[in-house]
Design brief:
By secondary structure, the chain is of the alpha/beta class. It contains 11 helices and 14 strands.
Length: 338
């Protein structure tokens, strides 16, 4: 049975991807510092699938920790999720983000090379595009991140691509995902942000469960049909299955770098998401209308056609399912994993 190492596998997207990997028959090991994640997520993954996951607690910047797990595991491939991920935090403390995210990738790639592990799927982000010139956004769009977090994603993409070009035995998939939301339908794992949520759906769920009084609705005068921003929301299990498809595609690929958007190709407005969440939760979800936030773009959604043609993958879950599954998680876990 093939084995995959998942860095950051105790996090939101990583843990859901572990479920998809296990259900597809992979042996899974997780390396996670647990700095902004929880070992409870890994335990819940095993409960969902009925099969255990190896967890090594360690930081990807720690050469000895990475060396140890790769030497012992001898994985067939690596999925790299580990890293800091808050856009506002990256603006406030850019050096921390550059040191953490770039050093993690460099240490991991070097250890992989030493042990002859040369297949990697990198969880990148649509933030590499910044404000696009055209919609929907294809992989041919210009990359011009608007914040240090986005730059760390793009620079890690470049690092991986340079490694592949230097040695044709390597192969890589770089996945630029849009707005992941929702949770596993079991309600056993889901998004558990630290502090005040920076994204719409986890904030709405915390309002629904009574942790916050109302949603701050930033911007109601955008040039969109209902005045609120439009985004491509993708169910986290669709996203997880996209990572699985990318991993499996690398089995017959060497010397190549595949770059794919993971999104639905459809946009929903903030007001549409609020309405869908009200339907899913049965709660009013009060909102406070505020001015636009600096840097927010009016519209952003993906052209996912390359992932469909190269990976055989498409997102299938609806906005209603995203809200239903997110509520299954939050209602069962009002305080998250805490």
């Amino acid at each position: 049975m093939a084995t995959v190492l998942v860095t950051g596998g105790a996090g939101y997207i990583g843990s859901h991807t572990c479920v998809a990997l296990l259900e597809a028959g992979w042996e899974v090991a997780v390396l996670d510092s647990l700095e902004n994640s929880s070992s409870a997520a890994v335990e819940a993954v095993a409960e969902i699938v009925g099969r255990g996951v190896r967890l090594d607690v360690g930081d990807c910047r720690d050469e000895s920790a990475v060396e140890k797990v790769i030497a012992e595991l001898d994985p067939d491939a690596v999925l790299h999720f580990a890293g800091l991920k808050s856009v506002p935090d990256s603006v406030a403390d850019p050096l921390r983000y550059y040191r953490h995210n770039l050093e993690s990738a460099a240490v991991l790639l070097a250890a992989m090379e030493r042990h002859g592990v040369r297949r990697i799927v990198f969880s990148s982000s649509a933030t590499v595009y910044g404000t696009p010139d055209e919609l929907p956004v294809s992989e041919a769009a210009k990359t011009r991140p608007a914040n240090p977090y986005g730059w760390t994603k793009l620079m890690t993409e470049q690092m991986i691509a340079d490694v592949v070009r230097s040695d044709p035995r390597w192969s890589a998939s770089l996945l630029r995902y849009f707005n992941p939301v929702g949770a596993h339908p079991s309600g056993l794992i889901g998004e558990d942000p630290e502090g005040v949520p920076g994204n719409l759906m986890p904030y709405l769920l915390q309002v629904a469960v009574g942790r916050r009084p109302m949603l701050p609705l930033y911007g109601t005068d955008y040039p969109t049909p209902d005045g609120t921003a439009l985004r491509d929301y993708i169910h986290v299990m669709d996203l997880a299955e996209g990572h699985l498809a990318a991993l499996e595609a690398l089995e017959s690929s060497t010397g190549q770098v595949h770059i794919c958007n993971l999104g639905t190709g459809r946009a929903a407005s903030v007001r549409e998401v609020i309405a869908a969440m009200r339907e899913a939760t049965g709660h009013l979800l009060p909102c406070e209308e505020l001015e636009r936030r600096p840097g927010d773009v009016p519209e952003l959604w993906a052209d996912p056609s390359r992932a469909r043609s190269e990976l055989g993958w498409s997102a299938t879950r609806t906005l209603a399912e995203m809200c239903r599954d997110g509520w299954a998680w939050q209602s069962k876990n009002p305080q998250g994993f805490g």
